[in-house]
Every structure is written in structure tokens, then in C-alpha cells.
Amino acid sequence: MASKPSPGSADQAINDGWYTELSPMWPGQGLSLKVKEILYRGKSDFQDVCVFESESMGTVLLLDGVIQATDRDEFSYQEMIAHIPMCALERPAKKVLVVGGGDGGVLRELARYPDVEEIHMAEIDKMVPDVSKQYFPEMAVGFSDPRVTLHICDGIKYVEDSPEHSYDLIVVDSSDPVGPAEVLFEKPFFEALHRAVRPGGIVCTQAESLWLHLDIIKALAGMCKEVFAGGSVSYATTTIPTYPSGQIGMLVCAKARTEQGEGGSAPLDPRIPRQAEPGPLPQLGVPELKYYSHEVHTAAFVLPVFAKKGLEGCLTFQ
Ligand code: SPD
User: Fold this and answer.
1) Which one of 174, 182, 213, 245 would you pick to mutate in the ligand 1 pocket, going by the greatest count of ligand atoms within 8 A of its CB?
2) Does a structural domain hold residue 35?
3) Which of 124, 155, 238, 301 is most enclosed, with most CB atoms within 10 A?
């Protein structure tokens, strides 16, 4: 990553009853939300953690002063980063890992699949699941699924220590590449992810905004193409009003189907949904999907002209 801006805090971000999301990652702009009440302030070993009740978006989770989730729109990101790769797989996933994602929203989405046998989470900061369980019961419900095991640990080390080909899918639900998540955007981590996922499996990682971070996406996609040689690397997008520029995407990296990689069978095209759309999970009180459908899945890979041009040569399918 070329520049390394320092992380912020909720203290800097909340003034006169308004929160404004400022960061060198989106210079010259900042979404503002009216604060009704600050519900939680904490400083973990890794980051500044804050929860507040907003007037328009419900309860809001900030890490280092940056919005991670709000009651009103979190489903868009959590559904898309979970269901796009889950539905793109050629056979139903049985063993899945989430790196980061301590609010539990991605777990909730993965728990919708009856064929999944094990869901592991490697989250570095215990404060995030603790706070989520207390203030975001609808997101944290995923932690109650009996197939989920939460490991509070360094996600990189966890992946490095996982046996080769352990997982059908690994979702990297990281915050922005500033502070503790920076290493989750670097090549050694992706090499470890590639090792840990099975041939034909998928690594799906938070990949920032087309409007603000084309350079980051380009570098990330280029690096992933090297690491996932013989497989495929594609970018899918979703809309979300409280993330910078109202849009965020994910890189969907499919590992070559055969051990030989290049020259083996054709790479998996993640634009095609192959598994059934998941349903509700009444035993945990998880409702029907609110954003993802097979139609949305296919459309998510269609990029606007400027992004298509900007990412030319970096993606396998676009
Ligand atoms: N700019 C913020 C990007 C945050 C992405 N991760 C959010 C975690 C939600 N589970």
C-alpha cells in the first residue's frame, strides 16, 4: 500500500451532536449522522471502539472512528460478501472460515446454509464480538449457531497454521487498510489464504470503493491474480449508504480447480450462481434475505464503464 494514514477515533469524529466520518482514505468528504446517544466507548489493545444511536440509521458501530455497520443497512454488505461466494461454489460449502467480521453479521449469513458443517471465525479483537452481542443482537445472532467456533487470535497466523486445503470458502471481512487490518491486504496473507482454501474453493475479501480506491483495487486484484494463478479474480459491487461513496465491493478469488493450476480445467466463473438462494433461519430468528438474490448476484459483477476501464487487465471476469 503506498500511503499509510493513521487511524482515527470516535473522539475526533463526534462533535456538537454530529458524527462525521473523516479519513485520509476519502479526503475532502465525510458522511455525517446525527447522534442521539453514545452507548459505548472503549479502547482495546487494537483499536478505538464506539457504538452510538443515530437519528436516521439506528445503532452504529465505529472502529477507529470509521463506520463498520449500522442497523439500517448492514444487511447489504454482509449478505453480498457471504452469498456471492457461497452461491458461486460448484458444490455446497461444508467448512468455512471468516477472518475478521467480529460483529457476527457474516456468520449470520453463513448460518443460513444447512449443508455447512463448520464455521470458524478468526477475529483479533475480543471487544468487537463482545460489543456486538450487547448492542447488535440481530447481527451477533450468528454467534449462537452451534456450528460456529470463535477464535480470538491473529487471523494471519490462524490461516498460516491451517492445514492446506482446509476450507471451501474463506471470507475476509476486514476494516479499511489502516491500522490492524492493513496486513490483511498484503501478499503474504493472500499466499496463506490460497494455501488454506481447497482447489476450486473461493477467497472473498472486502475490496473497497470503485469511486475512491481504484488504485487500491487495482493493486489488490493484480496481486491476487498472481497468487491465484490458474484460478480467477473478479470484483463484485454492492450499494450501502453508510460506507464511503455509498458503494463497496469484494474481490472474489477462485483457486484453480486442479493442483496443476494453469493448463488445468477452466477457472471458476463466480458470476454464475450455482447454489440455491438461502432462506431464513427461524430457530435463530434470522429473517428472509433483504438484498441478495441470484439476479443481484449476476448484476453485481457488471462494472460501470470508468471502473471497467480502470481495472482493465486486472480481473479475470468482468
Ligand atoms: N469503510 C469501512 C469498510 C468496512 C468493511 N467491513 C465491515 C465489517 C462488517 N461486518
Assistant:
1) 174
2) yes
3) 155
| Verdict on whether the full-model pTM lies above 0.85 | yes
Among 68, 94, 118, where does a domain finish?
A: 68
194 and 231 co-located in one domain: yes
The protein residue whose alpha carbon is closest to atom 6 in ligand 1 is: 175
Mutation probe of ligand 1 site: the residue of 22, 77, 251 with most atoms within 8 A of C-beta: 77
Give pLDDT tens digits for 171-228: 999 999 987 789 999 999 999 999 999 999 999 999 999 999 999 999 999 999 999 9
DSSP string, the chain: ----PPP--HHHHEETTEEE---TTSTT---EEEEEEEEEEEE-SS-EEEEEEESSSSEEEEETTEEEEETTTHHHHHHHHHHHHHHHSSS--SEEEEEE-TTSHHHHHHTT-TT--EEEEEES-THHHHHHHHH-HHHHGGGGSTTEEEEES-HHHHHHHSPTT-EEEEEEE---SSGGGGGGGSHHHHHHHHHHEEEEEEEEEE---TTT-HHHHHHHHHHHHHHTTTSEEEEEEEE-TTSGGGEEEEEEEEPPSSTT-TTSSPPP-TTS--SPPP--BGGGTB---SS--HHHHHHHT---HHHHHHTTTT-S--
